[in-house]
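Exercise (ungraded).
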Amino acid sequence: MKRIFFYFLFLVFASSVVAQIGPGYLGKRFMLGYGFHFSPAILGSNGSEGSIIGRGPHSLGGDPAFNSTHDGFLEFAFKNRTSVGLSCRYYNSTFDNSTSVYGYTFTPNGQQYILSGEPGGFYQIKGLNYALYFKFYNKRYVAPWGRYFLLGPVVNTYRSFYDPGIMKLETTDGSGGAKIRIDNFGAQGELYARGDLLFGWGRNRMIGNRVTIDYGVNFQLVALGFILWDAIGESPFDIFSEVQTTNYNYIEKTSKRRVREVNKLNVFVKVGVLLF
Amino acid sequence: MNYSRIFAALVFCFIVGDVLSQQNLKENFTPLKSEGVLPEIFTQNIRNVIKADITDLNKSKEKDKMIKTVYLTEANYEIEKIVKSGNTLINDEITKYLNKLKDIVLSNNAELKAKLNIFTLKSTVVNAYSYDKGYIFFDVGLIAQAESEAQLAYILCHEISHYTKRHNIQGYVKNRQLEKEVYEGKSTDDIIIEKCQYSKENESEADMEGFKLFEGTNYNFIQAQKAFDVLQYAHLPFELIEFKKSFLETENLKLPAGYFLKEVSSIRNNGSDDDTKSTHPNTVKRKAAIEDLIKARANEGRVNNIAGEELFKYIRDLARFECCRLYLKNRDYPNALYAAYILREKYPDNKYLTQVISKCLYAITLYKKGDLRYGSDSYLENGISSYDKVESFPQQIYHLIEKMPENEWTIVSLNYTYRAHKKFESDSLLSRLSDSLFGLIGRTNWGIVDFVRTNRKEVKTEPVKDTTSPKSKTELIANLQKENNFKNYDTAYYKDAFVDLFMTDKEFARKFPTSGPTVSSSSGFSDYKPRSYSTSKKAMKKGNRYKEMEKVSKVITLEPFYVIINTNEKISESVEADEKQEILINTINTCAGKQNFELVTLDPGLITATDVSKMNDYSVINDWIYERFDAYENSKSSVPILGTDEIRDITKKYGTTHILKTGIGYVKGKKKYTVFYAAIYDMRTNKMVYLKQEVFKGKPNKDLINAKMYQLFYELKNG
């Protein structure tokens, strides 16, 4: 994070030197702020009908659910109608386990069991998205004020956590009556990273001479491209990759879908302060 | 102590002082300027005035209070707009004179005298008008046309009667009431006729009441009647004298007779025109009504002038000189030329008149070459009128403009202007004008070789054989006369024009182009550059035309405008616009201040009573802008400014050549739009160097104005 911040500062100063700096808003060009992104959970990330969970109410109970993301950002208006920004978005979400999985386990005597079914409970996803974006303000407007279009690369990183006491596959051995339990779904806090392209439209308004209210819509292009695929849901056997979903790759495969759901399309409201 | 001697000395000093303060029109003329302390209307807060007026109205028992409230708001803003337009003269010689007439007319009514404020408006229109607030405005054009002091006094009496009878507010109320009748099925045409009828009744009443006031003076009654003749022939120049061919001729330049009409058209008598849709009765009716009054009164011993004939003539001449300037400002060059021609008869050595004539000839040359095109907002948007639409002697000028080819105009113009320059050698304006004309000669196919011969070349043209059907005897005679006229032409008559100058004047020979066509890169007058069509449309679309702008760190800013147009209802938005304008002014100052941008504010809304020089400067710049906008500019050529010479002094005084005109337009309605406008003009080159005209959806929020204004000064400062 530190490194990214320094890259950003470097970019700001380099662009200030190279390009003709724009007027900013009343001479202020550098903005620091907080944003809140949210989207209604329309398509189930876990494949069950319309069910999705956000950080709020559990959707399985039938309550409406929203994906929500918190955003800290820095922006610098380096040209008349262009700003460069760095944002770090954080979200904490869960995935309801409703996708079938082939579970593999070995008893102490070396006997292998293969179980098929849906793991119980859910697992948790904590994500951080790093985006370096450019805001291109519409003709007539002056960065950082007015309507704009934004574009930039984004890296979505996230870690998954699960509770083996809840997230498990269980059966009773037909012959010996022994309980067979699969609760190993990989390492705790495993880190995943995916790249995407951030797009968006918005409008920045001013309150007083320092505070900005920015609102609009943004989406991640790749995530949006998967909208139908995600709607169909995950199958235990991927016909394209011919990879079977097992307890070892279950989280890796299913979390992608959940992360895409969170990031694909969001409405946002941001509050910023023009520092200098 | 001998009091009578002291009194006599004081009177002498007063008279001598008055005479000494007069302009010496035999030598020169200085355009009229406001002087002294500005009256209260310049410094008062208009919103407080409106508030007080409405409070008084509400206390009274008058009817139609709603309509009158709107009237009071609108009228106050209208008066303020006129007074602060820069076209109003205060305490100048003409206004002082008009006030002297007021003192004469109202010598027995001190109370009414104190209520009236008389101003002169710099306009060639022949009119005077008054408001219920006691403000009376006289156009310079009316004073230029008046034949006697008594005529002006009668017109003043007429306007005072409009004030005392409150015709303005009554007319407004009546008009609003009539407009409502459209919902009751009345046609728009009928409503117009009724409005005009009501207005005519008021005018007739003012004529009668004005005459009663006039009767109280010792002015000649006949002059009251003759005042209507002045109004009837207001469309004609202030005097009618023959425009002689010899005026533009010199020993070696004799203009062909064919360029001049043998007879000019007669003057149409429009005194009894149908006045059904006119706000004033026709002059025949008005004169007849006054005649009835005169018949019943003895006119012996009454005089045409009380303040003095000499003074009247001097004031009228001032007005006439000012009209020359105003015609130039309006780019009405034929009228300016004719007005200067008339005055030249009386003041043959006046430098100002020579300058006006030279400017007109130069401007007409540009017009004929297509380098000067009237803008769509100009009242001459269709260009200089055809001669057949003009009456009487001025028709010769229009005919000459129409018939003489452009290159010959250039010769005639240079011939006049160069000789004028030699006559007033120290005058830089005439020098620059003649230099510019040398540049224009360079664009012809002629060079010095074509003008150095001394033998007049006789060109004989074969009579054109008429192949059309046989004509009558009289038509044939007319044709023959025509052919003879043309046969007598020496088509190269103009080539001898400069023979004497080539022989005796080294400067002329040096400056004259050696061979044409060449395009002078620096013509020397207003940095004028010949027009070029080479700029691509693509570049124009991209807005590249202003990319070449240099950095600007100081501008003169004029009163920014804030206009609200309500498309939904016919309600007054003046108060809101006025309040918003104040905020806009603050924003402009803040945005400029934050960037250490030097802003010279010439805003009549912000000046104090002693700021008369600022008011005059504002007026000069406004005139410059008016003239600048009256003509069309393309990307390469600049628009010549000929009516506002003082602009050079302004640029020196304020240390900048740039002026900023900016403002916000807000269209209220079902759909809301905001227009941001900012333009910078370079008064040195007469070019627009920066233009932003942007439309935003929605209302003009604070952030929009802040952002755009800050951007404006940022772009100016950083280029």
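Further reading is listed at the end of the chapter. For now, observe: The helical segments of chain A are 2-18, 221-225, 227-232, 250-263. Chain A has four helices and twelve strands.
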